[in-house]
């Protein structure tokens, strides 16, 4: 059974991430943990010096969290009939990253599926920047970020940008292989660079990648950087009608070295496609 964490702030984007996770893992036996985090912040208690009043604000946040989660469970009860799915809610007092870290260890989470942006205004729990913050601080778990307007249908086309600088360990690559092994999915690997001459290590890593994908539909491409790496990835993904972009969360990548741009963070803010970030086992 897969244990999948679904952080929510009850926004439209968070709901879409939940729906996407349910469809993406339709052929697996899963337990979904729906997590909502709430915490007193400066803006929540501004003007309140009384401990009693602060307690009232905290109680209101807790009630809102529990009520929102109860509504999600009611929706699931009425609309989700897959016998292979189980759902559990988590109302966590604390910030988002702390809540995620706590849930990973407590519930043996292997994958996080969340929206790229949350609600706005007073109800905001996490925004795009917090999704990126999660990415930076959670390195031992797969993260799938889902844009608000993306309507997932089926996993037919997966784009995997690589510079072939890093070796793909089997445990890192396994979550992707599990997904593409279910449907008739093609993995489109493309080398995005300013020049395509590879050293011996890169050639060896490419050979390992071919080995990893043996028996799966895959193809190789080369894309020359014209502006930024993030833009090249987005343009290629749009052209290939990708259903998912797969990136690796290495702390210091070749892509960043040659362009001085934080590729994963830029993709999070601007991609119109879901992004699966494979964990960094080196960081």
- The average pLDDT value, as a whole number, equals 84
Beta-strand percent range: 15-25%
Sequence of secondary-structure elements: EHEHHEHEHEEHEHEHEHHE
Backbone CA Rg: 20 Å
Spell out the key features of this protein:
283 residues; alpha/beta; 10-stranded mixed beta sheet; 10 strands; globular
How would you portray this structure in words?
A ten-stranded mixed beta sheet has the order 3-2-1-4-5-10-9-6-7-8, sandwiched between helices. It has helices spanning 12-24, 42-45, 51-79, 96-107, 128-137, 170-180, 200-212, 229-239, 254-259, 263-270, and strands spanning 2-7, 30-38, 85-93, 111-115, 142-146, 157-162, 186-193, 217-224, 244-248, 275-278. Helix 5 (128-137) runs antiparallel to helix 10 (263-270) and helix 8 (229-239) packs across helix 10. Helix content is 41%, strand content 23%. With 283 residues, it is of the alpha/beta class. 35% of the residues are buried.
Draw up the topology in text.
Layout: E1 2-7, H1 12-24, E2 30-38, H2 42-45, H3 51-79, E3 85-93, H4 96-107, E4 111-115, H5 128-137, E5 142-146, E6 157-162, H6 170-180, E7 186-193, H7 200-212, E8 217-224, H8 229-239, E9 244-248, H9 254-259, H10 263-270, E10 275-278
Parallel strand pairs: 1-2, 1-4, 2-3, 4-5, 6-7, 6-9, 7-8, 9-10
Antiparallel strand pairs: 5-10
Helix pairs in contact: 5-10, 8-10
């Amino acid at each position: 059974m897969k244990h999948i964490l679904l952080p929510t702030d009850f926004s439209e984007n968070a709901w879409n991430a939940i729906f996407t996770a349910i469809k993406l893992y339709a052929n697996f036996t899963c337990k979904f943990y729906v997590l909502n985090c709430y915490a007193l912040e400066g803006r929540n208690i501004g003007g309140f010096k009384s401990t009693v009043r602060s307690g009232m604000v905290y109680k209101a946040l807790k009630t809102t969290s529990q009520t929102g989660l109860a509504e999600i469970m009611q929706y699931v009860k009425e609309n989700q009939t897959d016998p292979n799915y189980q759902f559990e809610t988590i109302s966590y007092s604390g910030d988002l990253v702390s809540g995620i870290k706590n849930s990973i260890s407590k519930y043996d989470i292997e994958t996080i599926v969340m929206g790229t942006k949350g609600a706005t205004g007073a109800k905001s729990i996490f925004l795009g920047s917090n999704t990126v913050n999660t990415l930076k601080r959670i390195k031992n778990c797969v993260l799938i970020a889902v844009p608000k307007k993306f309507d997932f249908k089926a996993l037919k086309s997966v784009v995997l940008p690589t510079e072939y600088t890093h070796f793909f360990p089997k445990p890192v690559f396994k979550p992707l292989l599990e997904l593409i092994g279910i449907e008739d999915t093609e993995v489109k690997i493309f080398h995005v660079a300013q020049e395509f001459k590879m050293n011996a290590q890169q050639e060896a890593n490419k050979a390992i990648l071919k080995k990893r994908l043996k028996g799966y539909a895959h193809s190789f491409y080369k894309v020359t950087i014209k502006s930024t790496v993030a833009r090249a990835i987005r343009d290629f993904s749009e052209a290939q009608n990708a259903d998912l972009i797969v990136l690796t969360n290495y702390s210091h990548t070749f892509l960043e070295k040659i362009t001085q741009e934080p590729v994963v963070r830029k993709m999070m803010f601007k991609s119109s496609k879901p992004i699966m970030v494979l964990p960094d086992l080196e960081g």
